[in-house]
Design brief:
With 153 residues, the chain is of the alpha+beta class. It has a domain of 99 residues. It contains 6 helices and 3 strands; from the N terminus they run H-H-H-E-E-E-H-H-H. A hairpin with a 2-residue loop joins strand 2 and strand 3.
Length: 153
């Protein structure tokens, strides 16, 4: 076994900690779990940045009006945060621009074209919704079991 370099042990990174402890089943387990956590967080942040970059920062770059379900909607100039978007990698905050029905008294809810374009289903991305459906389809899986599994993963 090659002795780990002492400078690595002070770096605080996962590889250094693994090398410092030396190989063992427990260290291997801990190392792989930490790598999984780090990669999941990297993917979560990357998805958040990519999805938010899909919405123009300048309101003038977004269409002033959009049509949806036979109604015309007018752009709001400020974005609002949806802090409950669930992805395969965890929750993200989506900054999206809303559109309100031009008929002020219509009672129609504000729509968010970015959420529609991303295919969000009850606040979940299509990939997460697919995982939830697959988990529900497993024999004996209850809704609570699936929700617990999705939170864990």
């Amino acid at each position: 076994m090659v002795a780990p370099k002492r400078s690595w042990s002070k770096s605080g990174n996962s590889s250094a900690r693994f090398l410092e402890k030396g190989p063992s089943p427990a260290a291997t387990f801990e190392f792989e779990r930490r790598l999984q956590e780090l990669s999941r967080e990297l993917c979560r942040r990357t998805a958040e940045v990519a999805y938010n970059a899909s919405e123009p920062a300048n309101p003038e770059e977004a269409p002033h009006f959009v049509e949806q379900g036979g109604a015309t909607y007018r752009r709001l100039n400020t974005t609002t945060a949806n802090r409950h978007v669930a992805t395969l990698f965890g929750k993200i905050t989506l900054d999206r621009r809303g559109y309100r029905d031009v008929e002020r008294d219509s009672g129609e809810a504000t729509i968010f074209p970015l959420e529609m374009a991303l295919g969000l289903i009850e606040g979940a991305t299509p990939a997460l919704a697919c995982e939830a459906a697959r988990a529900l389809a497993e024999t004996g899986a209850t809704q609570q079991t699936v929700l617990a599994r999705l939170r864990r993963e």
